[in-house]
Task: structure prediction
Amino acid sequence: MEKKEKSFYGGRRRDPGSSFGRRCAMLVREQRAKFYILRRCIIMLVCWREHAEP
Result:
């Protein structure tokens, strides 16, 4: 039987197909999406407040 080496990163088994750069790009994309949603919510609240006050 052949013994396979397993590499672990942060307690998870690392996928050999995903490189460090790909993981970083995915994290950046996720953070950009979160900031976009947050920005849209803040703009909506500010506009609602402006229109709600007489």
Q: What stands out?
A: Helices lie at 20-52. The beta strands are 8-9, 12-13. Residues 19-52 form one domain.
